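Task: fold both queries, return tokens.
Query 1:
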Amino acid sequence: MEPNQLQPRNAIKIFTVVVFCFAIMEGFSINIFSNYLVDAFNISDEVRGMIETPRELPGILGMFILSALVMYADVSLAIMAQALCVIGLLVMGTLSPSFEMMILFMFVYSLGAHLYFPLEASMLMSLSEEGKIGATMGKVKAVSTFGYFISAIAVFFGFRSGFFDFTTPVKMPFVLGALACATASVMLLTLRKNLSDMPKRDKSKLLFKKKYMPYYMITFAYGCQKRIRLVFGLWVFVKLLGYKADFTALLLIASAAVGMFLSPQFGKLLDALGLRKALLFEGAYMIFMFGSFGFFARSFALGTVPPSPLLLGATILIFIGSDATRFFEMFHAYTMRCIAEKPGDITPSLSVGQAVDHVMAMSISPVFGIIWAAWGPQWVFWLAGASALFQLYVGLRFPKQCAPES
């Protein structure tokens, strides 16, 4: 092996540090972005909803940008993405921009993050050893979850102590997030320098292929399920039960702690069951979790407040279990790898899947908000569970064997 090449295990270790740093950055930025908007700009509910459009739009634009930049290897694009995150966070964190300038640099930051998401999955699969992709992805996801865990604790104590404050000229969480992304960029530069066989993508047009429909279908369903988890999962505790930010912060810390254990198990499950059975497991898991969540939400809406310790404990467990559905993203990335006609199709197709996900994110929240108000909160979760029929359908029709990447 050439001196400037890394052993696969060393490459995975370097990339794991990148994933960890990016998770730290998310914990210091997007996870508390609503607090920033309220504290720094005192925005109204209506404006908060409108801000979601420029914040989520990069998730759709990403597929066009990645398609246009096919001349660059994934690792180079990942460096560019991290640089955009650094720029956006530093401006928001140190220059106290006006509201209009904040929107602009929020867009820059969000664009970098959304460009990185599909690149991370593609690179991780490329660097993994054949036959151990699920286990490797699970372990790296566990490290990512540990990053969320560390940052959630820092945020909790930082704001409690007054060290973090979004009303001061310097927003320290954003500065720390930018430093985490800068560290990730350095690690990616090391990876690019030392791994000479880092895969490059073939030139191709924007990918919408009939053969990839199974991937688009499960991504469409997952986009709905993820939005319910992110928006309405915590809303049960905040709106129906009246808990404050300190309780929800502790809830997220507990979820991250459990996630560090669950993530490797989900990865091992993918290797052990194979993709077909893994997708069937995902569908059944989604139906159980969201069905149970709907049952508890209905109980609270009908007046079981304050809940008994047993009912509250069960609801917390269901929340943690539903939060773990984020680990199914490794199943979806592996689905794309299995059906790809060539390796160069993986990254642009993952970006298309991300766009489908974000179309759901931008459209489904208002609809489910109306359903919550008109029919009751249980129907939001039950409809999310019903959408898991897409995963079951794809799993039933998927070949028993996954063709290895050529």
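Query 1 returned. Query 2:
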Amino acid sequence: MEKFPEGKYLSTVKIGPKGQIVIPKEVRDMFGLKTGDSLILMADKGQGIALQPYEYLKVLFDAVNGVQGENK
């Protein structure tokens, strides 16, 4: 397999019979993902599918709540 630049990875995954995919070990290691971690799945017909660690959503919610708090 071709060597990618630091912080980059490209792979194919197959969807199993229960709709599951396996996140490659290199990617789990890159993002520090462990068994039992929660991910946020975002989907847009035009832009595709993205997975983000749950902490991403928490940061987003905190940012939105901070802005709302400043507007009161």
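Both queries returned. Flag for query 2: The chain is about 35% helix and 15% strand.
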